[in-house]
Input
Amino acid sequence: MFIAQDDSACNNAESQTNKISISGNIVPSHWYHRLLRPCGKSDTTGIAILSELVFLHRYNGNSEFQLNFNYFKRKFNFGASQTKDAVIRLEQAELLKRSLRTVIVSGRRFTNEMFLVLHIENVLKLNSQDQAKKFPLSGRKEKTDSLEISSDNKIKKNLSRNRSSGSNFYSNSFLEKENSSATVICKQRFSLASFYPLVQSDIDKLQTLCGRQFSGNAINEILQNLSIKLPNHSFPHKSAFIKYMGKALAHEMRDAVKISNESFKIKNNVTSEEIATQAREEFLNEIENSRDTSPKMQLSRKLAGILEPSVAYNFLMLASFFDNTESLKTDSFKIILRKKLELSSSDHSLILAQVQSVYGNHINRLEYEAPPHITLSQNVQTTDTSFKQPRALQKDETKVFEGIWGEIRQGLIDYYGSGGNAMDNAWFSKLIANVDADNKKLTLKAPTKFIKDWVQSNYTHLIDKLCSLHSYSLEEVQYA
Output
């Protein structure tokens, strides 16, 4: 049955079509098959940029343009890193060339202006049939080896034969045929830790995905923290990880501006060794920057600068210099040690030399003393060193914690595991506890302001939790 069409309706449709206005260049469809990203997909960003340059060339006949990344970013709504990577891929394919120049306009000097030179001859070759061989933009391996092709054909034939022979459940069972020639393909999955640290290109992608300006250091810190909290979280490939990380950063509760500095660290990422190292550096820096001109502080500064940092830290934390002007008339210098300490003969010689530089060359030996309950290590003993300690105590006594503070100290040691004893020696053992048993309150006193500030900023939350287990509360950490 023939249905007559209304001529007026056709004319209206044609008039509406004529009103459509399209600006810009028309992209050949085969570009989407030949301009590929390393993953094998069409390089749509690069295609849009190249088509814009071809359009400008056809419009004014020039092949050189003063354009920067922001031009394409604004026109096509691309990201900054997305645009830059696409231009670099086009340059590597020899479709264009970048150059930076200095331009003077009306007496004003503009440096590092980017110019793009379009290689017309290579763009024309892009339309040829053999272009896939001349512009391997995809980064994929071309399978030209006849042996590889033949083996692929054999695999395809075997697969088609298996599909046509009915059910192959038993014949292809890997459980029953261990020596089968079939290949088992195990898909590898990647943990969060395997992507740490992220490179700059990945950081740029994540910044674009999450829409927040986290710094590279902040993103890597957040990733490391997630890898510790979620050790079993895994991904089939990097693209899945990037999507997951982009969502995580979009919902991150931390302020992007506050944490985007190079010194930002998440406490969960810092090990006990790193904490101890940081404390040692801050302690030694405080001594070296002190303006105290007393002989004891002069000696401390000299020892902090000449001894190995870990030796200087341990020695200065435990040693007290006997400040008695009458003793300077003798040839010995007294040092009181609050705990057991091991010093090599070379360390002892360095200490003696610094004592002589401050108190005089008439001093030729060091005299170590210790409280009655401390046994000095015999490793510090040298020919010019004398020791004064009770003869009855020649063995190290077992460390026993007493009272509520002793139980809390033991809880701190257990919490930090293998590094607990080192943490206790460095910090908790130096605190004096005032216990108010009636009101169930605990007040801690630190010998120095540095120790007080460090304990208050790093350990009070944990000490308070341990106090609550014993129905106590931590009042404060004071500087005695």
